[in-house]
Amino acid sequence: MTEMRRPLIAGNWKMHLTLAESAALARTVRTDLKETAVAEVVLAPPFTALSVVAQELAGSPVQLAAQDVFWELQGAYTGAISPRMLQDVGCRYVIIGHSERRQYFGETDATVNRKIKAVLTVGLQPMMCIGETLAQREAEETLAVITSQLTGGLADLLPEEINRLVIAYEPVWAIGTGRTATPEQAQEVHSFIRQLLAKQVRPDIAYGLRLLYGGSVTPDNIKVLAQAPDIDGALVGGASLKADSFLKIAALGN
């Protein structure tokens, strides 16, 4: 990463933790996070815990994120959560297009695009996830998949809107599997994303955008990943469920 882009470490708790467990973990992260922390730290609890975690994080530098969102601001959409609701509960970020949403819930590049636009209208910042499956990587389709997801997800967005995004590259084959892309593999894709954005949007926006890596990030591999010039932090899954491991990652392994 470069000093021009502040690193960001986001903990995606997925479908874990009760209200009490969520509050306790958020409290520990808030309390034990060093004042000298270089990285911006973000927690993404399940919808049910957003309110209690927001209370625990109040007045701290730790930011709140949601794990998903619907693309309408209100209406008869049973079970859905709107950008306005997320703004009201105290979110700053929203994860959009996570591979698990794509795999299990039918998320497409078109719905990712609609969600990004809706989130931007209320002033929240999207964390857009992209990444290839193992079959796609073995078929040497990684860069084609990344191009398609990036182009589809960002369709019709103005450069100024794209400038408000965070993009997370998460190779699907490395999520929750214990397998991690090598720093070289991750850097190759991150560099490609930045070059593609420079061509399709604007070089200055591409250079300033934060690109995160996601996929079995641990305290043991974060330091070498963060040293790659185009990796600006991480979207952390399992290791974010324990305060000690997450805080070590937030310290970028230092």
From TrEMBL:
Cell compartment(s), UniProt: Cytoplasm
TM region positions: none
Main location: cytoplasm
Keywords: Cytoplasm, Gluconeogenesis, Glycolysis, Isomerase
EC number: 5.3.1.1
Catalytic activity from the UniProt record: D-glyceraldehyde 3-phosphate = dihydroxyacetone phosphate
Gene3D superfamilies: Aldolase class I
CDD domains per UniProt: TIM
Subunit field text: Homodimer.
Protein family according to the UniProt entry: Belongs to the triosephosphate isomerase family.
Name recorded for this polypeptide: Triosephosphate isomerase
Species for this entry: Desulfobacca acetoxidans (strain ATCC 700848 / DSM 11109 / ASRB2)
Classification lineage: Bacteria, Pseudomonadati, Thermodesulfobacteriota, Desulfobaccia, Desulfobaccales
Encoding gene, per UniProt annotation: tpiA
